[in-house]
């Protein structure tokens, strides 16, 4: 591989999944991993196998399929490397190996904190003890797998002399990628760049390894810091789609890739990313995690290529380069165009979805087609964005414990907002619920609560329109937290801190021309997700007819 190639290591499924509430099902993780592979990422960090049996299975699933040389009937010489994270313990490393070993190109990524504050308060270990652990655990990982990545956690706040020793120990023990995390997003670009330069100059054996950077965005500097690292010789960058991740998130994949692409003449560096897929993958990740993309987000935000002011529009008409440093189609953000209509058939829908990157067959296709026809009756123009919004409903709902059949709302300024809902459960029984609320959505959610009987706190509710126009689809996202967590919902260990448990948050998504119906669907989707996580059939909840 040329020295101008910057490897893209995607951690959406690991660090990204550590965003509060971003938990994905195994099927969703596989869908995202397939999309990342098509996008052209070099390494997929598929998860943290020691966190739970589910995480382990999800990593194995990805290793067996996306990590194989043969995928969906296509043969590839170089499938992406599939990586699993492990703390520097034998147990974690064994689990990581169990997860990634079915892949054609497996990698174990092990880490231990090296900064004084982590050594003293979290690990209660001396420098010598940390060095001994690095030697022991990297050697152990190497005895299982050839490709080993080592990270000194909180490297951004580690003394440089100790950092050199820690990295040298890891290289000696067999690490071939040395990742430098700015775990708490503390450094400034010139400092972080300097750290990477000094590492190249002072760590014995560094020429045998690839230096990687992993920056968090607590000060909004993750992309700038990663670029500074690359300019100082790092040739792997750890990123997540839409910049999701712990706290303020990780470096956004799309920002790094487009910075390198747009300024290629200056930087002379390249990646293997097929940039026209960026917008689509961004939407997919937003859908499965339930984390919306802010409209002004660089590269993939809805407004990233929108020009509002008259002066800008005038300039654009005269020459697009006046206000555009990259073309929208370069990142797949083409202006929405009419694709299908009322008279299109199932095959046309299937083809268009395939072009958008979604493979739908059998029952899933039949359901999508039904919904498409339904929408085509209400809306003349069906765009790609509409299709994605429709399709992602199906993608994100693993099992429908409760399904909305009918909904009626009475509201306005002359009375109490009142909702009546008819819902069918997974045993086929129909339930009717009526309630009043402070507004129509509140009334609907209360009517649903009366049937489902799982009191939840609504943490977030957002509604947006998929396209412009009065007949646009309204997309609703909700995030809920059960007031009492169901006993069988596994509390997951946060790999960064080892011991703290995450309160479960569930998201749901609904898209309809009627936003109250979309709201009901989104709320039921979140409840279904909660029920799937706790594995309780609807009947066990004692629903009342
Ligand atoms: O931010 C961090 O330090 C990490 C490591 C596990 C690489 O995510
Ligand atoms: Zn991280």
How far is the first residue's CA from the last residue's CA?
A: 64 Å
The molecules bound to the chains, other than polymers, are: 3-methyl-2-oxobutanoic acid, zinc ion
Q: Report the principal-axis shape.
A: globular
Share of residues in strands: 15-25%
Describe the largest sheet: 8 strands, parallel, barrel
Helix content: 25-40%
Number of strands: 18
Strand order of the largest sheet: 1-2-5-6-7-8-9-10
- Outline the low-pLDDT stretches: 486-502, 539-545
Task: Give the C-level CATH assignment of the largest domain.
Answer: Alpha Beta
- CATH topology type of the largest domain: TIM Barrel
Radius of gyration, in angstroms, nearest whole number: 25 Å
Q: How many domains, as an integer? A: 3
Name given to the CATH homologous superfamily of the largest domain: Aldolase class I
Structural class: alpha/beta
* Mean of pLDDT: 88
CATH second-level architecture of the largest domain: Alpha-Beta Barrel
Q: Helical segment tally?
A: 17
Protein model, in words:
- This protein has 545 residues and is of the alpha/beta class.
- The chain folds into three domains: 7-289, TIM Barrel, CATH 3.20.20.70; 306-382, no CATH class; 402-541, Alpha-isopropylmalate synthase LeuA, regulatory domain (Double Stranded RNA Binding Domain, 2-Layer Sandwich), CATH 3.30.160.270.
- Helices cover 39% and strands 19% of the residues.
- The strands form five sheets. Strands 1-2-5-6-7-8-9-10 form an eight-stranded parallel β-barrel, surrounded by nine helices. A three-stranded antiparallel β-sheet has the order 13-14-15.
- The relative contact order is 0.09.
- Bound molecules: 3-methyl-2-oxobutanoic acid and zinc ion (ZN).
């Amino acid at each position: 591989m040329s020295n101008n190639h910057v490897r893209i290591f995607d951690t959406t499924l690991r660090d990204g999944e550590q965003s509060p509430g971003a938990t994905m099902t195994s099927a969703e993780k596989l869908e995202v991993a397939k999309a990342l592979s098509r996008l052209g990422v070099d390494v997929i960090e598929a998860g943290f196998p020691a966190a739970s049996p589910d995480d382990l299975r999800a990593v194995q699933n990805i290793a067996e399929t996306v990590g194989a040389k043969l995928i969906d009937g296509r043969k590839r010489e170089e499938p992406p490397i599939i990586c699993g994270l492990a703390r520097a313990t034998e147990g974690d490393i064994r689990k990581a190996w169990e997860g990634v070993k079915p892949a054609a190109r497996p990698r174990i990524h092990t880490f231990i904190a090296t900064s004084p504050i982590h050594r003293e308060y979290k690990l209660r270990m001396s420098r010598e003890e940390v060095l001994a652990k690095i030697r022991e655990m990297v050697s152990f990982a190497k005895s299982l797998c050839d490709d080993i990545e080592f990270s000194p956690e909180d490297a951004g706040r580690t003394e440089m002399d100790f950092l050199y020793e820690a990295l040298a120990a890891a290289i000696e023990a067999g690490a071939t990628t040395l990742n430098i995390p700015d775990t708490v997003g503390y450094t400034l670009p010139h400092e972080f760049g300097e750290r990477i330069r000094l590492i190249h100059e002072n760590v014995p054996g560094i020429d045998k390894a690839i230096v990687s950077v992993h920056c968090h965005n607590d000060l909004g500097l993750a992309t700038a810091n990663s670029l500074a690292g690359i300019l100082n010789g790092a040739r792997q960058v750890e990123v997540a789609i839409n910049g999701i991740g712990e706290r303020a998130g990780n470096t956004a994949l799309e920002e790094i890739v487009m910075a390198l692409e747009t300024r290629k003449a200056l930087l002379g560096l390249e990646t293997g990313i097929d940039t026209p897929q960026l917008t689509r993958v961004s939407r997919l990740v937003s859908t499965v995690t339930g984390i919306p993309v802010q409209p002004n987000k660089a590269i993939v935000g809805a407004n990233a290529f929108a020009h509002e002011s008259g002066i800008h529009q005038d300039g654009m008409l005269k020459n697009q380069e006046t206000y555009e440093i990259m073309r929208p189609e370069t990142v797949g953000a083409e202006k929405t165009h009419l694709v299908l209509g009322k008279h299109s058939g199932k095959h046309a829908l299937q083809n268009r979805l395939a072009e958008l990157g979604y493979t739908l067959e059998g029952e899933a296709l039949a359901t999508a087609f039904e919904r498409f026809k339904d929408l085509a009756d209400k809306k003349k123009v069906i765009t790609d964005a509409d299709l994605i919004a429709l399709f992602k409903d199906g993608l994100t709902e693993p099992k429908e414990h409760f399904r909305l059949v009918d909904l009626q709302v009475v509201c306005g300024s002359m009375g109490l907002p009142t909702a009546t809902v008819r819902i069918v459960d997974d045993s086929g029984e129909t339930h009717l619920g009526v309630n009043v609320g402070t507004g129509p959505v509140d009334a609907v959610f209360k009517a649903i609560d009366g049937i489902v009987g799982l009191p939840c706190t609504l943490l977030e509710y957002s509604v947006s329109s998929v396209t412009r126009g009065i007949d646009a689809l309204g997309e609703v996202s909700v995030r809920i937290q059960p007031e009492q967590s169901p006993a069988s919902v596994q509390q997951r260990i946060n790999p960064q801190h080892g011991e703290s448990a995450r309160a479960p948050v569930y998201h749901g998504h609904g898209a309809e021309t009627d936003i109250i119906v979309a709201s009901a669907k989104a709320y039921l989707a979140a409840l279904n997700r909660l029920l799937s996580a706790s594995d309780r059939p609807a009947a066990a909840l004692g629903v009342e007819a």
